[in-house]
Give the backbone structure.
Amino acid sequence: MAAVVERDEIDVEPFVVGEEATPEFEAANIAQERRRGFLIALPAYAYLIVFFAIPLLTVIVYSFATRDRFGGADLTSFNLDSYVDLNDELIRTIIVRSAGLAILTTLICLVVSYPFAYYMATRSETVRNIMLVFVMIPFWTNFLVRNYAWYVILGTDGPLSRVAEFLGFGPTRVLFTQAAVVLGLVYGFLPFMILPLYASIERIDGRLLEASRDLYATGLQSFRHVLWPLSLPGVIAGSILVFIPSLGAYVTPQVLGGTGTTMLGSYIVTQFLTARNLPFGAAMSTVLMVFMLAATIIYFRKGGRTL
Amino acid sequence: MSGITEPRGWTKGALTTTSWLVYFFFYAPILVLIIFSFSDSRNASVWGGFTTVWYSDFAADSELTGALWNSVRIAVVATLISVVLGTMSALALERFRFRGQRVFDALLYLPVIIPDVTMAVMLLLFFAQAAKWFGFPKGFGTIALSHIAFCISFVSIVVRARLGGMDDKLEEAAMDLYASRWQAFRHVTLPLIMPGILGGGLLAMTLSLDDVVITQFVTGGGWSTLPVYVFSLIRKGVTPLINAVSVVMLVASMALVALSLLTQRLRGDDAVRQS
Amino acid sequence: MTTLRVRWTAVIAVFAVILAGCGDSGTESAAGECEVGQTDGALALYNWAEYIDPEQLDAFAAEYGIEATMTEYDSNEAMLPVVSAGNSGYDVVVPSDYMVGIMIDGEFVQPLNFDLIPNAANISDDFANPSYDPEQAYSVPYQWGYTGLAVDTEVVGTDFPRSWDLVFGEAVPADAAGKITLLNDPRETLGAALKALGYSLNTTDQGELDEAQALIEAAKGNLLRFDTDSSDELLTSGESAIAHGYSGDMFTQFLEMDDPSRYVFFVPEEGGTRWIDNMVIPFDAPHPCTAHTFINWMLDGEQGAALSNWNYYGTPNSAAIDMLDDELNAFLTDPSVLPGGLDNVEEIADTGDFEIKYSDAFENAKG
């Protein structure tokens, strides 16, 4: 009993159940699948080409342009001036500072998240889920608001200052300092460290830790030789997820920072505003992006898949 | 595989305390913000007695409510379009093999890695050039287009994870039962990945509502979204009005999350457990 | 599949509603086709912060039955890239004196059609045909004022030198260390440093500019931050003790406090800036008719007076002078505001190709 099933594509003949699949039929099927796949991907693909790939090329092109009198880009003459300018002492200071603050943020996040993630992994499933939800809730709230909350807290008249006064330290203003910026960054990106860490620790076979204990290892030794190496993928994933946005941060230093806290993100933005140097801003953006790309590729090569 | 066992001795106390401290760290600033939004004082960091005047000021301020309305509209449009495009790209990458697939895959990852600032710069220059050639006005259109550009990737990642975790034999089974490709998708795949689609949509909406830099760079002619407007207010002069606006934004985000958790409960989780 | 169709219709309906409010696509109408008092769409104003009463803007919108929005910038240099890039969507912009010259040079503004601005007759002679727009073809004056220092006498005392030395190292009071703000504005802040060093604030000498840059860098240790928009509020909230800022901003902020006499504003003896801000129309303004109508409306005597009485800056409008508040007049004629007299006060001028050096020096100083 043969039943005919119609296919949408015109090229492929309606096949009959019960008949053999010939090589020609197979090939036609694969071609049809290929086309289908391409067509389904097409809208998103086209969108990203137009609104992502082309803008990207635009930036790269602008980075080679010359700066005109008004700070815009003179596209009639191309050179490497903007890239040469990158070697300026001020830029290097800013890069070092941004990298330093980003690394500090990452380290603090790691130190704070590790015990937390470990503790979460030792809880029962229900408790774990509840803990997760309560970690995610701040993550879903508006990023700007989370930074602004620290603006309110860290001012000279703010709650933190009041507590310091109460403890006998006198009114303190943490706002507009590097400490404030780091605090804001840690607050913003802590969930990015907790989640991968937790995912990694949770997968560890608890019996390995028990075994090391049975072999008379102290807690510290178990940590150093068993727990830490096994959780390393999570550590790396979390570190990258915190370091990258911290390096390119803009909102946090703008809201919480003062003099001497200019970071890469703010500096690039000023090139398009008061500093009036479009080609240079484009060059910095390009370099920043290349660096991030390189970091991510290295991460993927090292086997990390979770993003 | 058994999980890690209960910590013993002093470590247990230390770990519990650390965890509570972390939660305190997370929620104390939010609480402070909520409390100070009711403060009767011109200084946003000082408590001066209870009042709700800032909330009524917010409601009466047409610029603020206008910016809020803009944010919502843009977020809805951006989410809808990026969910559709993101899901389609996830399907194409997970279930098909076609030419240029690797390039597409890489292209999809870029908006995730790229820092906000670079993306803002890219789109600024792009729209400026486009303006010279096509006269495209800056405002709602440019903001929505920009948001979609970075949201598609995030939706795609979430849906792909879901698709990857799903047993694709189910689709084959459906087709063995004479379902067409489309029917198989509609009745088998789609319900199973729906939690992923909703999750991706929630993520897209959050990202769109959160965005400051990119929006700031591509907006023009008086168009403002709420975070951009609040950002400029913070630079200008801080009063508890901003506290009130912040609390409203907080409550809105939490409501959104609660809503998504609820719909997930009702829709997807059962199907997931069965698969 | 009725449920499916219903769902799709709902989605499309939502889309339609949203996109309907997409904002007008601004077909350009040549200003020549307008008549006085006519409008061709909403007004998008691009202005400094706290420079016009929102209620006054609403009154304009109500009178002409259109929408009026305002977006703000905190320096000429922040405004220029936005307008010069084109397609900014703004109808009226308010640049300072030297910036008008730059914008005319770069062809970023369009010539005004004075047939549509009969109130231009109100412009006081002192402000007509300024050096930056000699034929008065592109701009009309908006407000004028001074830039100087505002101090909190409770921290600094009443016996302090009326000099830039208060901020640039020499005479910084101990209690004010770390509580000083400078304007986030290249020409103003470098200008202050240049004046402190005894140079002209329009110098084109790189050596003098380098000295000014060094002076600012040295002063950074005592700074709270570089801030334009909230410099006045930081002072009155106690976060800062000495603020570099604009006269009107400071005056209005003082009057909001319980004890206005606690704060003093002055232009240092070495000299400072006197500036004139102007209204111009970008070359690609979407609603030039509305723009002209707005400019004409602002030049009306009553509107000019309302403006100055709100922001406490000087008015270039001869028809408005009689309607100014007594308090404002008192501030404007107070001799203690200008302890060095008018001799050392300069107006910022366009330095042509050297202009970009100021931006660079400032960015390098800020670090």
Notes: Residues 2-20 of chain C form the longest helix (19 residues). Residues 75 and 340 of chain C are 26 Å apart (CA to CA).
